Amino acid sequence: MKETRILMGMPVTIDIADISATGEALQKVFSYFEYVDQKFSTYKTASEISRINRGELAPVDYSDDMKEVFRLAEETKQLTREYFNIKKPDGSYDPSGLVKGWAIYRAAELIKGLGFKEYYVDAGGDIEARGKVWKIGIKNPFQQKEIVKVLYIQDRGVATSGTYIRGDHIYDPTNSGTNMDEIASLTIIGPNVYEADRFATAAFAMGQAGIYFVENLEGFEGYMIDQHGQATMTTGFEAFTKEVLQ
C-alpha cells in the first residue's frame, strides 16, 4: 500500500509492501509527520520552535523531543567541525537540517513497530528503505526530470542536500558570508536516513571539500555534482549502483 501527502511543505510518501497494510497504518505514520511539523516548523507561529525563538520558553520547559533534537544538533555540530549548526546568524534556531531525517527514521521505526518488514518512507527525497532492495533515483539538479544514477538500497538511508529545489536555504555556519555555489547537490548513503541527512547538510556547507569529508566517514558513501555538472563519488559508492548489493 502506497500513498503520498503534502506535509511539512513537501511530498511525503509511505510505501508498505505488505498485503496486510491498511489505511489506518498509513494514517498513523502521516499523523506522526503532522505532529513533527506542528512542533518544529519555523513557519508556524504556534510551533514550539517558534515559541523558543520568541523567547517564550526556557530550556527547562522544552519538550522531550525538542531536548533530544537540540542534543543531537550539538553532537552533530561537534562531529562536523561546526559545519552543522542549528543556530542561525540572527540568533534564532532552525533545526530543519536535522529534523527531517530524524522524523523519517522515527516514522520508519513506527512502521516496524506495527509489524511490517518491507517498506520505505520518503520525505522530500530523503528516504529510509527497509526489508527488500528498493530502487532509488538521484535527480540531475539541472534537469530534475532526468535521473543520473539509480541506487539499490536495503536497510539504509539516503539523503540529498542542495539548493536546486528550495533555493539558498543552506549556509556555511563557519563563515556566514560564503556563497553556497560550489556544488549543486550532494547525496549521502548512510546506515539510516537520520545519519545520512545530518551529514549531507554539513557536507554541502563545506562546498567541494564535502565529498572528502564523506569519504572519511565510516559506513557512508557520497555522490556530489558541482556547479559545472561534474560528478565526484566516494570509493564505495558504485557498489550501490549494482542491483545485487556487494
Question: Topology of this protein?
Answer:
Blueprint (H helix, E strand, L loop, with lengths): L1 E6 L2 E7 L6 H18 L7 H6 L10 H16 L16 H18 L5 E5 L2 E5 L3 E7 L2 E11 L2 E7 L20 E8 L2 H13 L4 H6 L5 E6 L4 E3 L13
Antiparallel strand pairs: 1-2, 2-3, 3-4, 4-7, 5-6, 7-8, 8-9, 9-10
Helix pairs in contact: 1-4, 4-5
What does this molecule look like?
There is one protein chain. This protein has 246 residues and is of the alpha+beta class. The protein has a single domain (2-241), classed as ApbE-like domains (T-fold). Helices cover 31% and strands 26% of the residues. It is built from 6 helices and 10 strands. Strand 3 and strand 4 form a beta hairpin. The longest helix is centred in the first third of the chain and has 18 residues, at 23-40. The two termini are 29 Å apart.
Strand order of the largest sheet: 1-2-3-4-7-8-9-10
Question: How many domains?
Answer: 1
Q: Could you give the order of the helices and strands? A: EEHHHHEEEEEEHHEE
Question: Could you say what the CATH architecture is?
Answer: Roll
Distance between the termini: 29 Å
Count of helix runs: 6
The main β sheet shows up as:
8 strands, antiparallel
Helix fraction? 25-40%
Beta-strand percent range: 25-35%
Residue runs with pLDDT of under 50 for 5 or more positions: none
Q: What structural class do helix, strand and pairing data support?
A: alpha+beta
- CATH homologous superfamily caption: ApbE-like domains
Principal-axes geometry comes out as globular
Average residue-wise pLDDT: 93
Q: What is the highest CATH level, the class?
A: Alpha Beta
